Amino acid sequence: MLSLLLAVLVTAGCDGDAAPTEAALSEPRSPIARIVSLSPAMTTTVVDLGDPDLLVGRTPWCRGVENATVIGTLEGPDAELLLVAKPDLVLVQPPASGLDPSILELQRRIGFDVIAQRLDGIDDITAVVRALGARGVIGGSSERAWMQQTEFIRRAVSEAAESTSVDDSKIDLVMLHSVDPFGLVGRETYLDEVMTAAGGRNLVRRPGWIDAGVEELISLEPPVVVLVLASVDDGRRLAMLRSLPWKTTPRFEVLLGPDSFEPSSRISQVVDRLRELLVGSSQGLTPEVTP
Prior knowledge:
This protein is of the alpha/beta class.
């Protein structure tokens, strides 16, 4: 049953757009009047491009829909609360292990539509926008405007994947999503694509989200280190990074804001903020060699 339901139903519909990697689990059904979102990133996309009043259920981390009932987390819903919510559509960001079978069972009992999509990059976000558009949650004009706004990201990611030469205009950097342990942003991730679109070149060669030791981090010898923070902290994490035994002290920048951690409709704003940081770093002073 699971293998049948996990068929790809959303495909590329515009010339020149990259094809999405996954799709919805069920055929579009309209009208959609009640949505439960188990993905903060998809919630943000609905808030930005659709009608937030459609969201009747959410996770504790969804922003902009505080009046909606907390029904579950990324790991899955509270079955009883989901039954009470009576959604027409459930938004799910499944883990690598696949969709929670309980959601499929609840879908069978209630009959709601499901959009299940991993969010590892711009193609995945595009797939969600298209799936929401197909269900009437996002209007055609909003969808087209967003596609135009984010076309430069798709183009940059595609060109980087196809290029066989080194682009000296790119700024080498390392991005960290945590410092205890050191969490490196690797290839084939949402933030790796953000780096690419912002004019950066990720010095981390391995894919995924990587827990690294001090030796691995400093061996990369990055000229720029970007620390991603959801909110302002007391400065201890930057101080820890500065205290490491760098051969050449990098320039440190902070990419601040919860949008940086959500692969959502706001990806272009995250790219713009990172580009501003990288441009500032490229115009800064030459890093000093530590004794």
